[in-house]
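Page 47, continued from p. 46.
Same chain as before, 396 aa.
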Amino acid sequence: MPSQFEKYRFTKKTVLSDETFNKIFKDIDLRITALEDIKKDWTGAVEAVTRYGLQRIEEVLRPSWEHINNKKTEADNLVAQIQQKRDNADAIINTSRDDVLQQIQTEKIQALNNIQASRADAITAIQNAKTSALTEIQTAKNNALPQLDILAKAFQNDDPTTSIVKRALQSDTASYAQNADTVDGYHASLSPAPNVIVPLNADGVLDLSATYVKSHVYTFRRVDLTNATSDYNLQVGEEAIINFTNATSVPLRIATSSGTLYNLYVYLTAPSFAQGNSAVNTAFLLPNNTSITNAFYYAGCAWGSNGQSLVLYGRTSAFVLIGNAYLANCFSVIYNEVNHKSLTSISVHAGVNTDNYARWQHVSSVWNDYSTQWTSLGTITFPISSSGYILVRRLA
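Result:
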């Protein structure tokens, strides 16, 4: 819009009247009104452009902004997870470290204790060995002194420093020659005889079996198998004892093999049978510690002090040892052979029925099984809890 200053200029000749001022004010008002219309249109355009620009910015930048925010959230979560794993790792490391330190401390203490115990044991062993050695030396010295005195008497003037040996008397020479092969005047021999020394074998046992000549002299060795946990190989001439208290089953713990012969004694100190004549009041020997249904045949007879007698026979699942008695002791012969496995028992009974009469019984059992090896002498069973002892002696 061009300037209208010259049009509004006042001079000394300008008439100051209403017309003059109104004309000027009108023109100015018209110019201002036009400008105000232009300003209004410009403001609307600016606002429209601004709104459009903001809308475009919103459309273009919002996905990126949301993506950035999502990535930021994911990053924050990942950082939190990493921090949690780090905290967990620190806790595990601290726990493992504490456990290792505790274990090291425990093993250290244990090692020190073991060293101390070993040291104490070593000192005790050395002290005991020292005491034992001193005792043995003193004993040997005491034993040697009389011998040295005797030896000294062999020298002139009973003085070994002379180095001159006395001349032996004829009577002494004869005595020495007579006892050259004796111990305290007794001869040694593998043949047992009166006033003869028979040596022990390598196991420290006086063995009178096939290694030695038989004679009327008989000696046996007893072994206690009461608390044995495995079978013992009883040798010829050996005897085993098995004590038992309040037992219904007593394992003998004796190994056996084909060609062996035994004596068996059962001595009862407490009743082993319910009083009365019943077929269930029987003691058995279970070979190989087991029963075998109807594999055994038995036969026997009995005589009572009341004049009665009876015959026993039948089949059973083990060797019959004692039958139908209140309190009984028995003597048995056991033979183990591949084709003949048997037990023969003689027993004396007391308390048969309610009359308490005595009875003598003889019964034999055979095991007719030629294929099964009899390797463990077995277990004795009683009908009720019993006490006493068992002797088993091997004869062959």
